[in-house]
Write a structure and sequence with these properties.
The structure holds 2 protein chains of 2 kinds.
Chain A: H1 2-22, H2 27-34, H3 41-54, H4 56-59, H5 81-90, H6 105-115
Helix pairs in contact in A: 3-6, 5-6
Chain B: H1 2-12, H2 14-19, H3 23-26, E1 46-47, E2 60-67, E3 79-81, E4 84-88, E5 92-97, E6 103-108, E7 129-131, E8 134-138, E9 143-148, E10 154-159, E11 174-176, E12 179-182, E13 194-198, E14 205-210, E15 240-242, E16 247-251, E17 272-276, E18 283-288, E19 304-310, E20 313-321, E21 326-331, E22 336-342, E23 349-352, E24 359-361, H4 363-369, E25 374-376, E26 390-392, E27 397-403, E28 406-409, E29 431-432, E30 439-444, E31 451-457, E32 466-468, E33 472-476, E34 481-486, E35 492-497, E36 507-511, E37 514-521, H5 526-530, E38 544-550
Parallel strand pairs in B: 1-32
Antiparallel strand pairs in B: 2-38, 3-4, 4-5, 5-6, 7-8, 8-9, 9-10, 11-12, 12-13, 13-14, 15-16, 16-17, 17-18, 19-20, 20-21, 21-22, 23-24, 25-28, 26-27, 27-30, 28-29, 30-31, 32-33, 33-34, 34-35, 36-37, 37-38
The chains are: A mainly alpha, B mainly beta.
Chain lengths: 121, 552
């Protein structure tokens, strides 16, 4: 529970930092974070392609998974873009591998747009 | 001379002797030991032990359970030598007191956190080899490690391949004619794959045989342009060994990408079995099950070696229940096809031509090659996936966990990028599920493919199979039940619910007059990742090792 609280504090912190330094430069990202359920269809289609080459072999076909072996992305909170970017970039819990050296920020945003569709694109 | 030296060693140092283990012992079938991947060099996964039998198995109870402190897929087959059990996970190598289940030593395995990016089908290690006091294993990031069997101390470590290029290791090494042999994974990531030979003394690299020849090499004309460079042919399951013929039989995986339109030709040696000289890696013969395959009919799974009666003549054969849905019997002295018959529903080919050894493809394959969407049987997961079967030579039956579903297949363009999925198949709707059971444990006659009995399962079984002289067949469910069946009738005799799904490979051995059965437990393999079977949401991961024996 403690670790969980710490995690949320750091996520909030990251969000605030990101918001304060990147409002002007990363309009798309900020918009996605503020309007989480409004997935850009073109971006989501790009995200689906990226998902098929990088994510499907753990997170499942169309994101359908028992959710035990890998995280069920259909359950990912739609109001937590920052957590998504952080997990994809840096990896998580020594299970999710880091992708920051392969996926560019705009590609991670495309994946986020696809995640917002719940795999039903 | 070696025997003499070994005897001298035994006298001189009992501590060393307790952990020595010779080439000669590897060829024996002492029921106190489990020294080989597959229980013996022929990978029959059969034990003559009879204490646990069709009458007594109802008294089978847990002897002990050991946590792996790991929640990945647990598919490792333990080895047993002189009362110590050696087992691997992706994250550790562990020595266990075989009688009490107490951990003797544990040596962690570390690999870069990026590694799972290039693992297609679960974070897995399937086991170790034991040779002259060393435990030898691969790591997920494609390194080969030897540990002191007594202490777990790392003795040497060798680089096999570059993980960032898509190479990983999940299989157990083989020891043949004093050489360590290893395979590699990566065919879903555009790698060009191989089998390696290593010196057990120091991990020195001895030879490499690529499973996909380049244009200037023998067989290279079966690949157009530079397609061989990304042609796959992985070798992720351990080959079998015939010490009399000095030949290792190693199954070769699918070509890359699945989409076959850009690689016209047979694409040697993908979807084949290679007969190799373990001293040099030279190919003695090959047999290709599925030329130019578009359907991921990877042929790495266990090659069972036995001597069976063929038209009145005892014949050294190799038995392979191939992913493509046919069960093959080959003369392993020369690679000649003896029999090939379907053991599950097959629609991509009508038969296998016994004269040419080639499949007779149907219009389903023709349409798939033309880019049309087709319903294909078996699916890309095969009639049987990697999970090894067992052969009871006395009964003439091979026991397999078979898959009872097809797939929707459509080839799409694939673009190679290093370290990324390179498949070329539309995965948006890959499965054609049946009403009812998705899998059967079957008792198959290898010469006909016909089942003497079959035990259905709604969620298919993905564990290894073990059969015994007691007339009992052991297997596991993805929902955690470890089960025993009557070898003759398929009647379920016993079941015990473990704490996670079973993908491990059961073994049995004898210790202090008692017969033990053990199996690794822990879900996380290919079916749980790709099937989208949400019934498995109720099966938590969590690796551990269970051992059972009869209640006195």
């Amino acid at each position: 529970m403690k670790a969980r609280s710490g995690f949320w504090i750091s996520v909030v912190g990251l969000t605030l930092v990101a918001a304060s330094i990147a409002v002007a430069a990363e309009t798309t990202t900020t918009t996605a974070a503020l309007e989480p359920t409004a997935s850009d269809p073109a971006l989501a289609i790009k995200g689906r392609t990226l998902y098929a080459t990088n994510c499907v072999h753990c997170h499942g076909v169309n994101m359908v998974t028992p959710g035990t072996v890998a995280f069920d992305l259909r359950e990912f909170p739609h109001d937590d873009h920052a957590r998504f970017v952080h997990s994809v970039t840096n990896g998580k819990n020594n299970r999710m591998p880091p992708w920051g050296d392969i996926l560019k920020p705009d590609e991670i945003d495309a994946l986020w747009a696809y995640v917002l569709t719940g795999g039903k694109l | 001379m070696r025997r003499l030296l070994t005897a001298a060693g035994l006298v001189a140092c009992s501590m060393t002797a307790a952990h020595a283990q010779t080439a000669q012992e590897l060829t024996k079938t002492d029921t106190h030991y489990v020294l080989n991947y597959g229980m013996d060099y022929g990978q029959q996964r059969y034990s003559p032990l009879t204490q646990i039998n069709a009458d007594t198995v109802k008294r089978l109870v847990p002897a002990w359970n050991l946590s792996y402190d790991d929640s990945r897929s647990e598919e490792s087959q333990p080895l047993v030598y002189n009362g110590v059990l050696y087992v691997t996970t992706n994250s550790a190598t562990i020595a266990v007191d075989a009688k009490t289940g107490k951990q003797i030593w544990k040596t962690k395995v570390e690999y870069p956190p990026e590694t799972p990016r290039v693992v297609c089908c679960g974070i897995i290690n399937r086991g170790a080899a034991l040779y002259e006091g060393k435990i030898i294993r691969g790591t997920l990031d494609a390194k080969l490690v030897a540990l002191d069997a007594k202490t777990g101390k790392v003795l040497w470590k060798s680089d096999v391949a570059d993980m960032k290029a898509g190479y990983t290791m999940t299989g157990a090494p083989q020891i043949a004619d004093g050489v360590i042999m290893t395979g590699i994974s990566g065919a879903e990531f555009g790698t060009r794959d191989f089998i390696d030979g290593w010196d057990p003394a120091d991990g020195k690299h001895l030879w490499r045989t690529y499973t996909v020849p380049l244009p200037n090499e023998k067989g290279g004309d079966t690949w157009p342009g530079d397609t061989a460079k990304y042609g796959g042919g992985s070798t992720w399951i351990t080959g079998s060994f015939d010490p009399e013929l000095h030949t290792v039989y190693w199954g070769i995986g699918n070509p890359g990408p699945f989409n076959a339109s850009g690689r016209k030709g047979d694409n040697l040696y993908t979807c084949s079995v290679l007969a190799l000289d373990p001293k040099t890696g030279a190919i003695k013969w090959h047999y290709q099950f599925s030329p130019n395959n578009p359907f991921d009919y990877d042929s790495v799974a266990e090659m069972i070696l036995s001597t069976i009666d063929v038209k009145g003549t005892p014949t050294k054969v190799l038995i392979d229940a191939n992913r493509n849905g046919f069960i093959y019997v080959l003369d392993r002295t020369n690679g000649k096809l003896i029999a090939a018959n379907p053991y599950v529903k097959v629609n991509w080919a009508s038969s296998v031509d016994l004269a040419t050894g080639r499949p007779v493809e149907t219009d389903v394959s023709t349409k798939a090659r033309a880019g049309e969407m087709v319903d294909i049987y078996p699916s890309i997961l095969g009639g049987k996936n990697w999970e090894p079967g067992s052969f009871d030579a006395k009964r003439g039956l091979a026991f397999y966990n078979t898959l009872n579903f097809g797939g929707h297949y459509k080839a799409v363009p694939a673009e190679y990028k290093q370290g990324e999925w390179y498949v070329g198949m539309d995965l948006s709707n890959p499965w054609a599920w049946p009403e009812g059971p998705r899998g059967y444990l079957k008792a198959v006659d290898p010469m006909t493919g016909k089942a003497k009995w079959e035990a259905p399962s709604d969620i298919p079984r993905f564990s290894g199979v073990l059969s015994t002289g007691g007339g009992v067949v052991f297997s596991g469910q993805l929902t955690g039940e470890f089960e025993a069946f009557n070898s003759d009738t398929g009647e379920k005799l016993w079941s015990f619910k473990t704490g996670s799904g079973i993908e491990g490979q059961p073994i049995t051995w004898e210790q202090d007059g008692e017969q033990y059965v053990a199996v690794s437990v822990g879900i996380g393999g290919v079916y749980s990742l790709f099937s989208g079977d949400e019934r498995l949401a109720a099966v938590p991961p969590g690796g551990s090792l269970w051992a059972f024996k009869l209640l006195k």
